[in-house]
Amino acid sequence: MTTPSLPVRRSAAARNGVQPGALTPGELLPAMLREARRHQLVIASIFAAIAVVALLAGLFLLPRKYIVTTSVLAQESDIIQPLLENRAVSTRAVDRAGLARQVVFGRKVMSRLLAIGGWLDDKPSAVQQDRLMEQVRDRTRIVNARENLVQITYFDSEPERAYKVAAAMADLLIEESLASKERESREAYEFIDSQVNDYHKKLTEAESNLQAYRSDNADAQPGSIADVNARITALRTQVEQNRMTTMELHSREQTLAAQLSGESAVTAVQTRETLYRTQLIELQNQLDDLLLRYTEKHPDVIRVRHQMADLQAAMEAEQRRGSQPGAQDDAAVRANPMYQQLRQQLAQVRSDIAAAQSRMGASQSLLDEELGRSRRIAASESTLAELTRDYEVNRDIYQDLLRRRENARVSMELDRERRGLTMRIQDPAQMPVRPSGLRPLHIALGGLGAGIAVPLGLLFLLVKFDPRVRAPGQIERQGNYPVLTVVPPNRTRRDRRREFARTALAASLVMAVFIAYGLAYFIRQAHA
Q1: Are 47 and 87 found together in one domain?
Q2: Alpha-carbon gap, residue 470 to 26, rounded angstroms
Q3: Is the pTM of this model over 0.70?
Q4: Does 136 reside within a domain?
Q5: Domain of 448?
Q6: Among 235, 210, 244, which Cα is nearest to 372's?
Q7: Would 93 be classed as within a structural domain?
């Protein structure tokens, strides 16, 4: 009756996807428990070894990472800046973090950080110092937390050193930034001041050259060419007017001469003395008229005086001749009034012609002088323009540099008194109390988990792939024979004592592991 039931059992195992010699899920766990009981000392030893190794690695081999963060606030003065707008140069940095990295990662600051961190106590060589600086740079992170706020983050294996180095970075950043800004403004002021002195010398030299040239050339004055041109125009107008006047007077002279030629000189007998006296009176009237218009040195005035002197001498001679015995007054004639009038007009016209010609000659002479002066001014105009241009350029640059020097001086005073840019520690560094990242507790707990998982995995592999029979069902599925009964192993007292000793030893190993973990935890808490 067992033969017909075998194919049914085989088909059921096949339907469940179980191989004939393999353990079913219900048989796997009891088999693993039995194997664990048999190899409990080995399992406990593996668990203890893994847990202890993980604990030692967490305590002594895991690098500790203590992170310290501080922030520096850079703020422009909100009161002074509007008051000094366009008068002082304010330093505005867009990338504060970039400037902070340049300052902190510089060799000067790094050398001071090595001394503060205690790395220089062992007196390392130059190469070792460079490596230490590179390590400090790699452990430092500087970013812009927000506008004008620089955040400095530094981590180290020692909490006290991490705190000291991070705090020193913030302090040195503020110190070096303010010192750099003060040094920059001072150097800018000194440079502009030296330029002011140089251009003052150039301006003085240009002014001396211009003044010396004007002293040597009287006509080299500003606006001289305009005055000369105006003077030349006026003199040319005078010459033309005098020329036209002279032409008119010549025409009038010809007319009067023609009229005088048709008149008789005398019409009645008259003494010569009377004639001379009449002419003298006419010349006196003419002299009075000339003195109303001209000075004593005028040519017409001088000519009339000479004529009057000649008539006076002739009249005195006539008087002496008439007083002599036997003299006769044979010159007693009467002058023609029309003839005398024409002669007077002719004499007046000839006098006006002489005066017009004299004025025209004087005007022409003055015109020639002004034309010569104009040529001299034109010849010196290029040199004068060059000297004037040099003077004006140096003057403009000198005045602009004076304003810039004053602005730079105000900026230097602001930076010296640290009024323009205010830098202060917004978030000071704090002493770290716990390391960041993986802690020894995490490694220890991972070691406990690994100490439990590894033996279980080994038991599973042993039971799964070991070809030995561990359950009655394996015989029925593999040999197609029914199992009637199972004979339990016969354990002697010696076997039980040996098994108890193994169990006690395994439990001792497990307890020792937990005791070691507890001691390590309490020691770390006490140290903290």
Answers
A1: no
A2: 12
A3: no
A4: yes
A5: 25-62+440-470+487-527
A6: 235
A7: yes
